[in-house]
Specification:
CATH topology of the largest domain: Dihydrodipicolinate Reductase, domain 2
Mean pLDDT: 96
Number of helices: 9
Number of strands: 15
CATH architecture of the largest domain: 2-Layer Sandwich
Order of helices and strands: EHEEHEHEHEHEHHEEEEEEEHHE
Shape: globular
Radius of gyration: 20 Å
Low-confidence stretches: none
Bound molecules: NADP nicotinamide-adenine-dinucleotide phosphate
Helix content: 25-40%
Oligomer: single chain
Distance between the termini: 55 Å
Length: 310
Protein backbone atom coordinates (compact mmCIF):
# COMPACT_ATOMS: atom_id res chain seq x y z
CA UNK A 1 0.00 0.00 0.00
CA UNK A 2 1.46 3.45 -0.90
CA UNK A 3 2.33 5.69 2.08
CA UNK A 4 -0.31 8.40 2.71
CA UNK A 5 0.73 11.78 1.27
CA UNK A 6 0.80 14.65 3.78
CA UNK A 7 -1.77 17.39 3.19
CA UNK A 8 -0.34 20.64 1.82
CA UNK A 9 -0.75 23.66 4.13
CA UNK A 10 -2.58 26.41 2.20
CA UNK A 11 -3.65 29.99 2.91
CA UNK A 12 -6.66 31.60 1.21
CA UNK A 13 -6.57 35.31 0.39
CA UNK A 14 -9.77 37.31 -0.21
CA UNK A 15 -12.58 35.66 1.72
CA UNK A 16 -15.54 36.81 -0.39
CA UNK A 17 -18.15 35.18 -2.61
CA UNK A 18 -16.11 32.60 -4.49
CA UNK A 19 -13.88 31.71 -1.53
CA UNK A 20 -16.91 30.92 0.62
CA UNK A 21 -19.01 29.29 -2.13
CA UNK A 22 -16.31 27.07 -3.67
CA UNK A 23 -12.72 27.26 -2.34
CA UNK A 24 -13.40 26.57 1.34
CA UNK A 25 -15.67 23.53 0.68
CA UNK A 26 -13.28 22.14 -1.97
CA UNK A 27 -10.27 22.39 0.39
CA UNK A 28 -12.22 20.96 3.34
CA UNK A 29 -13.33 17.94 1.30
CA UNK A 30 -9.83 17.06 0.04
CA UNK A 31 -7.19 14.95 1.83
CA UNK A 32 -4.57 16.85 -0.25
CA UNK A 33 -5.07 20.13 1.60
CA UNK A 34 -5.07 21.72 5.05
CA UNK A 35 -6.39 25.30 5.29
CA UNK A 36 -4.23 26.96 7.96
CA UNK A 37 -4.69 30.72 7.46
CA UNK A 38 -6.79 33.35 5.72
CA UNK A 39 -6.06 36.94 4.69
CA UNK A 40 -9.06 39.23 4.35
CA UNK A 41 -10.05 42.60 5.76
CA UNK A 42 -13.60 41.46 6.60
CA UNK A 43 -13.97 37.73 5.88
CA UNK A 44 -12.88 34.80 8.04
CA UNK A 45 -13.31 31.01 8.03
CA UNK A 46 -14.32 29.35 11.33
CA UNK A 47 -11.41 27.52 12.96
CA UNK A 48 -8.78 29.02 10.62
CA UNK A 49 -6.17 31.61 11.73
CA UNK A 50 -7.43 34.99 10.48
CA UNK A 51 -5.10 37.72 9.15
CA UNK A 52 -5.82 41.04 7.47
CA UNK A 53 -2.39 41.59 5.91
CA UNK A 54 -0.59 39.13 3.60
CA UNK A 55 2.96 40.07 4.69
CA UNK A 56 2.02 39.49 8.30
CA UNK A 57 0.38 36.13 7.45
CA UNK A 58 3.46 34.98 5.50
CA UNK A 59 5.71 35.89 8.46
CA UNK A 60 3.42 34.18 10.97
CA UNK A 61 2.98 30.97 8.93
CA UNK A 62 6.25 29.69 7.48
CA UNK A 63 4.52 26.29 7.18
CA UNK A 64 2.14 27.63 4.48
CA UNK A 65 3.40 26.21 1.17
CA UNK A 66 0.62 27.42 -1.13
CA UNK A 67 -1.22 30.74 -1.28
CA UNK A 68 -4.52 30.63 -3.17
CA UNK A 69 -5.73 34.05 -4.29
CA UNK A 70 -9.49 34.68 -4.51
CA UNK A 71 -9.22 38.45 -4.77
CA UNK A 72 -10.60 40.45 -7.70
CA UNK A 73 -7.98 40.78 -10.48
CA UNK A 74 -6.66 44.29 -9.76
CA UNK A 75 -5.36 43.69 -6.20
CA UNK A 76 -4.20 40.17 -7.07
CA UNK A 77 -0.74 40.96 -8.49
CA UNK A 78 0.64 42.53 -5.30
CA UNK A 79 -0.53 39.57 -3.22
CA UNK A 80 0.88 37.04 -5.71
CA UNK A 81 4.21 38.86 -5.82
CA UNK A 82 4.43 38.92 -2.00
CA UNK A 83 3.70 35.19 -1.80
CA UNK A 84 6.25 34.26 -4.50
CA UNK A 85 8.94 36.49 -2.93
CA UNK A 86 8.29 34.64 0.34
CA UNK A 87 8.94 31.32 -1.44
CA UNK A 88 5.34 30.09 -1.61
CA UNK A 89 3.55 28.44 -4.54
CA UNK A 90 0.64 30.46 -5.94
CA UNK A 91 -2.79 29.55 -7.33
CA UNK A 92 -4.67 32.33 -9.13
CA UNK A 93 -8.46 32.68 -9.57
CA UNK A 94 -9.59 33.57 -13.07
CA UNK A 95 -8.88 35.93 -14.75
CA UNK A 96 -5.27 35.46 -13.57
CA UNK A 97 -4.54 39.18 -13.48
CA UNK A 98 -5.69 42.60 -14.53
CA UNK A 99 -3.17 42.66 -17.42
CA UNK A 100 -1.22 40.12 -19.45
CA UNK A 101 2.14 41.71 -18.56
CA UNK A 102 1.65 41.29 -14.84
CA UNK A 103 0.97 37.56 -15.26
CA UNK A 104 4.11 37.23 -17.43
CA UNK A 105 6.01 38.92 -14.57
CA UNK A 106 4.60 36.43 -12.05
CA UNK A 107 5.48 33.56 -14.40
CA UNK A 108 9.11 34.75 -14.54
CA UNK A 109 9.24 35.22 -10.77
CA UNK A 110 7.89 31.72 -10.12
CA UNK A 111 10.25 30.12 -12.66
CA UNK A 112 13.29 31.93 -11.18
CA UNK A 113 12.47 30.56 -7.74
CA UNK A 114 11.42 27.04 -8.78
CA UNK A 115 7.87 27.68 -7.52
CA UNK A 116 4.52 26.57 -8.94
CA UNK A 117 2.24 29.16 -10.53
CA UNK A 118 -1.22 27.92 -11.61
CA UNK A 119 -3.58 30.12 -13.60
CA UNK A 120 -6.85 28.32 -12.91
CA UNK A 121 -9.78 28.26 -15.34
CA UNK A 122 -12.60 26.65 -13.39
CA UNK A 123 -14.94 26.29 -16.39
CA UNK A 124 -12.41 23.99 -18.08
CA UNK A 125 -13.13 21.52 -15.27
CA UNK A 126 -16.86 21.40 -16.11
CA UNK A 127 -18.13 17.84 -16.65
CA UNK A 128 -18.48 17.87 -20.45
CA UNK A 129 -15.40 19.90 -21.46
CA UNK A 130 -12.91 17.00 -21.63
CA UNK A 131 -15.29 14.80 -23.71
CA UNK A 132 -16.05 17.75 -26.01
CA UNK A 133 -12.33 18.36 -26.55
CA UNK A 134 -11.75 14.68 -27.28
CA UNK A 135 -14.69 14.55 -29.75
CA UNK A 136 -13.51 17.69 -31.59
CA UNK A 137 -9.86 16.63 -31.82
CA UNK A 138 -10.17 14.99 -35.27
CA UNK A 139 -12.99 17.22 -36.63
CA UNK A 140 -12.95 20.35 -38.79
CA UNK A 141 -14.87 23.20 -37.17
CA UNK A 142 -16.92 25.16 -39.73
CA UNK A 143 -18.73 27.53 -37.32
CA UNK A 144 -19.00 28.16 -33.59
CA UNK A 145 -21.17 30.50 -31.55
CA UNK A 146 -21.03 31.27 -27.84
CA UNK A 147 -24.10 32.64 -26.04
CA UNK A 148 -23.17 33.64 -22.50
CA UNK A 149 -25.99 35.67 -21.00
CA UNK A 150 -26.42 36.03 -17.26
CA UNK A 151 -27.66 38.40 -14.58
CA UNK A 152 -24.85 40.44 -13.01
CA UNK A 153 -27.04 41.31 -10.02
CA UNK A 154 -27.42 37.60 -9.22
CA UNK A 155 -23.77 36.54 -9.60
CA UNK A 156 -21.95 39.71 -8.50
CA UNK A 157 -24.34 41.38 -6.05
CA UNK A 158 -23.03 44.85 -5.18
CA UNK A 159 -19.53 44.09 -6.57
CA UNK A 160 -18.68 47.49 -8.03
CA UNK A 161 -15.12 46.32 -8.85
CA UNK A 162 -16.44 44.49 -11.94
CA UNK A 163 -17.31 47.89 -13.46
CA UNK A 164 -14.04 49.58 -12.46
CA UNK A 165 -10.95 49.59 -14.74
CA UNK A 166 -9.40 46.11 -14.65
CA UNK A 167 -12.68 44.51 -13.50
CA UNK A 168 -13.36 43.40 -17.12
CA UNK A 169 -17.15 43.89 -16.95
CA UNK A 170 -19.04 41.21 -18.89
CA UNK A 171 -15.71 39.57 -19.75
CA UNK A 172 -15.53 38.40 -16.12
CA UNK A 173 -18.07 35.64 -17.00
CA UNK A 174 -17.31 35.75 -20.74
CA UNK A 175 -13.71 34.70 -20.12
CA UNK A 176 -15.10 31.43 -18.72
CA UNK A 177 -16.62 30.69 -22.14
CA UNK A 178 -13.35 31.69 -23.81
CA UNK A 179 -11.43 29.41 -21.45
CA UNK A 180 -13.56 26.49 -22.70
CA UNK A 181 -13.35 27.54 -26.36
CA UNK A 182 -9.55 27.88 -26.31
CA UNK A 183 -9.31 24.46 -24.67
CA UNK A 184 -11.59 22.49 -27.02
CA UNK A 185 -11.01 23.95 -30.49
CA UNK A 186 -8.62 21.75 -32.47
CA UNK A 187 -7.05 24.87 -34.06
CA UNK A 188 -6.66 28.34 -32.49
CA UNK A 189 -8.64 31.34 -33.76
CA UNK A 190 -8.09 35.05 -33.23
CA UNK A 191 -10.41 37.99 -32.74
CA UNK A 192 -11.07 40.27 -35.72
CA UNK A 193 -13.83 42.60 -34.45
CA UNK A 194 -15.85 43.45 -31.34
CA UNK A 195 -18.70 45.71 -30.27
CA UNK A 196 -18.61 46.64 -26.60
CA UNK A 197 -21.63 48.16 -24.82
CA UNK A 198 -20.79 50.38 -21.85
CA UNK A 199 -23.36 51.73 -19.36
CA UNK A 200 -22.90 55.50 -19.46
CA UNK A 201 -21.88 55.58 -15.76
CA UNK A 202 -19.40 52.64 -15.87
CA UNK A 203 -15.83 51.92 -17.01
CA UNK A 204 -16.27 48.37 -18.33
CA UNK A 205 -18.74 46.79 -20.81
CA UNK A 206 -22.01 45.17 -19.75
CA UNK A 207 -22.37 43.41 -23.13
CA UNK A 208 -20.03 42.38 -25.97
CA UNK A 209 -20.34 40.86 -29.43
CA UNK A 210 -17.15 39.25 -30.70
CA UNK A 211 -16.09 38.00 -34.15
CA UNK A 212 -13.16 35.63 -34.59
CA UNK A 213 -11.53 33.92 -37.55
CA UNK A 214 -12.85 30.51 -38.58
CA UNK A 215 -16.57 31.41 -38.36
CA UNK A 216 -16.41 31.78 -34.57
CA UNK A 217 -18.52 34.41 -32.76
CA UNK A 218 -19.67 35.24 -29.25
CA UNK A 219 -22.52 37.10 -27.58
CA UNK A 220 -21.93 38.08 -23.96
CA UNK A 221 -24.59 39.94 -22.00
CA UNK A 222 -24.89 40.65 -18.28
CA UNK A 223 -28.50 41.91 -18.38
CA UNK A 224 -30.33 38.59 -18.71
CA UNK A 225 -32.92 38.04 -16.00
CA UNK A 226 -34.77 34.72 -15.56
CA UNK A 227 -33.19 31.61 -17.10
CA UNK A 228 -29.45 32.03 -17.68
CA UNK A 229 -27.72 30.90 -20.89
CA UNK A 230 -24.20 29.45 -21.04
CA UNK A 231 -24.06 27.67 -24.43
CA UNK A 232 -21.33 26.94 -26.98
CA UNK A 233 -22.68 25.58 -30.29
CA UNK A 234 -20.21 24.21 -32.82
CA UNK A 235 -20.74 22.95 -36.39
CA UNK A 236 -18.22 20.48 -37.74
CA UNK A 237 -17.64 18.29 -40.79
CA UNK A 238 -19.20 15.47 -38.71
CA UNK A 239 -22.31 17.42 -37.65
CA UNK A 240 -23.18 19.72 -34.75
CA UNK A 241 -21.97 19.60 -31.18
CA UNK A 242 -23.05 21.78 -28.26
CA UNK A 243 -21.94 22.42 -24.72
CA UNK A 244 -24.67 23.73 -22.44
CA UNK A 245 -24.88 24.81 -18.81
CA UNK A 246 -21.39 26.30 -18.78
CA UNK A 247 -19.69 23.23 -20.24
CA UNK A 248 -21.46 20.72 -18.02
CA UNK A 249 -23.79 19.12 -20.59
CA UNK A 250 -22.73 17.74 -23.99
CA UNK A 251 -24.92 17.34 -27.08
CA UNK A 252 -23.72 15.61 -30.24
CA UNK A 253 -25.92 15.68 -33.35
CA UNK A 254 -28.63 17.40 -31.28
CA UNK A 255 -28.82 14.52 -28.77
CA UNK A 256 -27.71 14.52 -25.09
CA UNK A 257 -24.33 12.79 -24.98
CA UNK A 258 -23.07 13.10 -21.44
CA UNK A 259 -22.09 15.47 -18.69
CA UNK A 260 -23.90 16.35 -15.49
CA UNK A 261 -26.30 19.08 -14.44
CA UNK A 262 -24.03 20.46 -11.69
CA UNK A 263 -21.02 22.75 -11.30
CA UNK A 264 -19.88 21.26 -8.00
CA UNK A 265 -16.92 19.31 -9.42
CA UNK A 266 -14.99 22.28 -10.82
CA UNK A 267 -13.15 23.55 -7.72
CA UNK A 268 -12.24 20.10 -6.30
CA UNK A 269 -10.69 19.39 -9.73
CA UNK A 270 -8.71 22.67 -9.61
CA UNK A 271 -7.30 21.85 -6.17
CA UNK A 272 -6.45 18.29 -7.28
CA UNK A 273 -4.55 19.75 -10.25
CA UNK A 274 -2.73 22.25 -8.01
CA UNK A 275 -1.69 19.44 -5.63
CA UNK A 276 -0.26 17.52 -8.61
CA UNK A 277 1.59 20.58 -9.93
CA UNK A 278 3.16 21.31 -6.52
CA UNK A 279 4.20 17.70 -5.98
CA UNK A 280 5.67 17.48 -9.49
CA UNK A 281 7.41 20.88 -9.23
CA UNK A 282 5.59 22.24 -12.31
CA UNK A 283 3.64 25.37 -13.29
CA UNK A 284 0.61 25.75 -15.55
CA UNK A 285 0.15 29.21 -17.05
CA UNK A 286 -2.27 29.62 -19.97
CA UNK A 287 -3.22 33.14 -20.99
CA UNK A 288 -5.09 32.26 -24.22
CA UNK A 289 -8.57 33.23 -22.87
CA UNK A 290 -7.22 36.55 -21.59
CA UNK A 291 -5.51 37.36 -24.90
CA UNK A 292 -8.95 37.33 -26.58
CA UNK A 293 -10.35 39.69 -23.92
CA UNK A 294 -7.38 41.99 -24.28
CA UNK A 295 -7.80 41.98 -28.08
CA UNK A 296 -11.53 42.76 -27.73
CA UNK A 297 -10.72 45.71 -25.49
CA UNK A 298 -8.10 46.83 -28.07
CA UNK A 299 -10.22 46.42 -31.23
CA UNK A 300 -13.70 46.93 -29.80
CA UNK A 301 -16.10 49.53 -31.14
CA UNK A 302 -17.69 51.29 -28.17
CA UNK A 303 -21.40 51.98 -27.78
CA UNK A 304 -23.12 53.58 -24.80
CA UNK A 305 -26.26 52.33 -23.05
CA UNK A 306 -28.38 53.20 -20.00
CA UNK A 307 -26.64 53.73 -16.66
CA UNK A 308 -26.32 50.61 -14.49
CA UNK A 309 -26.97 50.51 -10.74
CA UNK A 310 -26.94 47.41 -8.51
P1 LIG B 1 -15.59 39.49 -4.08
O1 LIG B 1 -16.45 38.66 -3.19
O2 LIG B 1 -16.05 40.85 -4.44
O3 LIG B 1 -14.11 39.64 -3.57
C1 LIG B 1 -13.39 38.68 -2.84
C2 LIG B 1 -12.73 39.33 -1.65
O4 LIG B 1 -11.58 40.06 -2.08
C3 LIG B 1 -13.60 40.37 -0.96
O5 LIG B 1 -14.49 39.76 -0.06
C4 LIG B 1 -12.59 41.26 -0.29
O6 LIG B 1 -12.28 40.75 1.00
C5 LIG B 1 -11.38 41.16 -1.18
N1 LIG B 1 -11.27 42.38 -1.97
C6 LIG B 1 -12.20 42.93 -2.79
N2 LIG B 1 -11.72 44.05 -3.37
C7 LIG B 1 -10.49 44.21 -2.88
C8 LIG B 1 -9.47 45.18 -3.10
N3 LIG B 1 -9.65 46.20 -3.93
N4 LIG B 1 -8.32 45.05 -2.44
C9 LIG B 1 -8.11 44.02 -1.60
N5 LIG B 1 -9.04 43.07 -1.35
C10 LIG B 1 -10.20 43.15 -2.00
O7 LIG B 1 -15.33 38.71 -5.46
P2 LIG B 1 -15.61 37.20 -5.87
O8 LIG B 1 -16.94 37.11 -6.53
O9 LIG B 1 -15.30 36.27 -4.77
O10 LIG B 1 -14.55 37.09 -7.07
C11 LIG B 1 -13.15 37.03 -6.82
C12 LIG B 1 -12.50 36.39 -8.04
O11 LIG B 1 -13.08 35.10 -8.25
C13 LIG B 1 -12.73 37.19 -9.34
O12 LIG B 1 -11.59 37.19 -10.13
C14 LIG B 1 -13.87 36.42 -10.03
O13 LIG B 1 -13.78 36.51 -11.44
C15 LIG B 1 -13.58 35.00 -9.58
N6 LIG B 1 -14.78 34.17 -9.58
C16 LIG B 1 -15.96 34.62 -9.06
C17 LIG B 1 -17.12 33.82 -9.16
C18 LIG B 1 -18.46 34.27 -8.60
O14 LIG B 1 -19.46 33.56 -8.78
N7 LIG B 1 -18.57 35.40 -7.92
C19 LIG B 1 -17.06 32.57 -9.76
C20 LIG B 1 -15.82 32.11 -10.22
C21 LIG B 1 -14.70 32.91 -10.13
P3 LIG B 1 -12.00 41.72 2.26
O15 LIG B 1 -12.83 42.96 2.08
O16 LIG B 1 -12.40 40.89 3.42
O17 LIG B 1 -10.52 42.01 2.16
Amino acid sequence: MPAPVAPIPVALVGIGKIAVDQHVPAIAASPDWHLVATVSRHGTVPGVAPHTDIAQMLDAHPEVQVVSLCLPPVPRFAAAEAALRAGRHVMLEKPPGATLAEVHALQDMAAARGLTLYTTWHSRMAHAVAPARAWLADKTVTRAHITWREDVRKWHPGQDWVFEPGGMGVFDPGINALSILTHILPRPVHLTAATLTFPENRQTPIAAQLTFTGGVSADFDWRQEGPQTWDIEIDTDAGPMALRLGGNLLEIGGQPSGGENSIMGEYPALYARMADLVRQGQSEVDLAPMVHVSDALTLGRRQITDPFHF
